[in-house]
Amino acid sequence: MSPKNVVITGASGLLGRAAVTYFRAQGDNVTALAWTRADKDASYTKLDLTDAAAVDAWFAANKVDAVVHCAAERRPDVAEANPEAAETINVAVPKHLGELAVKHGFTLLYISTDYVFNGRNPPYEVEATPDPLQMYGRQKLAGEKATLGAREQGANAAAIRVPVLFGRAEYNGESAVNILVEVVKDQSGKAYSMDDYQVRNPTNVEDVARVLYDLTHLSKPLPPLIHFRSSGPDMTKWDMTKTLGRILNQPITHVTPQSGKPEIKPGQTERPWNTKLTVKVLEELGVRTDDEKSFEQWWTAYLAEKPNGF
User: One GO term of the cellular component aspect (predicted)?
Assistant: First the structure.
């Protein structure tokens, strides 16, 4: 595959960092866009994606072959509490990037979520009817539609839906999976309840990065909607907690599984039961969909290197 000029937005985030690392390792010329963290790390290019004029000027001045749009307000409870701010990054920004993809001719990959589905009838094909249960899912669905609107004007644009992610973190709170390391390691006597109802497909950002690279280097146009998830087993948060407890050799008697539908507490929003995605579209494209390492293999190696999780 010939090297490309690739822009990765949200490059300082969990997925963004993995994508930057992978694309650069394959020889691409990567511009890693970030905002707040760019002040502390010169490897990032600082650009406010909500400043349309600044974004227009940047793309006019730079040759871009592909944009991988990872930047988002990814926290459902935050999107619910402050929907206007979340909508700017989750809807308005991808719409603008779609317009720029039409104007400048670059490929656009928008990172979406399995939360566009209600989770009642898994598994989900790309053709399944979305029915998000919360503001976050509704906004990401609107972002999909904004991105795909650019296709009608000739852009090579697509939305790829992914489930809950984990990976190399700067702090465990970067991921709803990584944070479970904190729960397991907290042997202070504090008691925790852990969801054993909602089914997840925790997916490694390194595997997502590989798929994103393959998609941006396809020799044919992208399909509009794509699904990717781990090839590993379905897991509840309780399943993940038990696995991490074994790896860390820590007792988890302070954690109690909750098998019923979780109560929605103040400041929280509803999550779907099981949003398992099919990967048929990727398979038809010839893109590899299996995990580089299983959930347990990856965490065993990572926690041996970083016992605190970061």
Answer: methionine adenosyltransferase complex
